[in-house]
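Entry 14. Ran structure prediction on the chain below.
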Amino acid sequence: MLEYEEVITRLCGLNRWRKLSRLMDLAELTDGNLLRVTPYYQFRIIRDDPDDNLFADCAISAGADFIITEDKHFAPLTGSGYKPRPISPQEFIARHPAIWL
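Output, structure tokens:
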């Protein structure tokens, strides 16, 4: 969450982060579509940007199918033997159009 806060605050401002944080809190309480995960094991799959490992660790621990990203550092997840694989936002939307109806 701290990295999300840092990036969103830098790119969009603190007010935008606060709104998004409140929205995530509400989503977690209402429909169960948000799962906060604290990984207890470090898989260390991403070598080029070690800070990204936290996201990979969370996705693996949660049993996620995808990590939606355009960050090329997540490429080592593909073929790693773990379930989540990186997918671009555009590819995810194209593969799952029913979600957006």
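The helical segments are 2-12, 14-30, 53-62, 89-95. Will compare against last week's run tomorrow.
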